[in-house]
Amino acid sequence: MSASSRRRDFRSTLRSHDQVSAPAAPPTRHPGQPAVPGAAAAQQAVLGAAQGQTALQSAGGARPLSSAGSVLPVLAEAPKQARRWWRHPAFLVSVGLTFVAVAATATLLIVSAVTDDSVTVSGLSAEVAEGNLHLDWSGPDAEYSLYAVDGDGTATDLTQFVRGTEAWLYSAAAVYDDSTCFVVRPGGSDAAVALDAATLDAQRAQSVCTADAVS
Q1: Which of 41, 108, 167, 199 fits as disulfide partner to 161, beta carbons 3.0 to 4.6 Å?
Q2: Can you list the positions of beta strands (E) in the chain?
Q3: Contact by Cβ (8 Å): 171, 210
Q4: pLDDT tens digits for 146-165?
């Protein structure tokens, strides 16, 4: 082989070696063409850059584990409902005062009727009808009290038998006998019961005895 042939073969060998060892040129990207995904990540992260290195190095840094969001949802405040007129404090106070006024007026009327000096018992009489004793008297429409007075002066309240201006005493009730007298007077008095004329006049009362009853 001649010397010129050896030089050509040597140059061909060098040219082939340079083509194999030279790095490939990056592909040309035209303006407006999007970048290839992963290219930027390949430049930021290097795996195994040094001997024994197995961790992935990232230029972006570690992301914090905390969260900026709220733990509990924010609840909207419930709208306030308008108070009913009948639950207003002023209305309740007015109703209470009205009831107090009515009760006071009723009490005053009752007390006035009971303590009225115009209530006087008159015309008290006794009558025996079918074995029962009927007492009758005159007076205004008011409250009256009836007492049975025994021979020893003991007084027993028989007001439960009063109906208006009369009272029926049934013989079966055994609340009287032939010696019993009766006193009728306006109700509401706590004074002692007596049969004497002075006490009866002071209490605007009258008395009658079983022995005086008309058969």
Answers
A1: 167
A2: 46-47, 56-57, 122-129, 132-138, 144-149, 155-157, 162-163, 166-169, 181-186, 206-209
A3: no
A4: 999 998 889 999 999 999 99
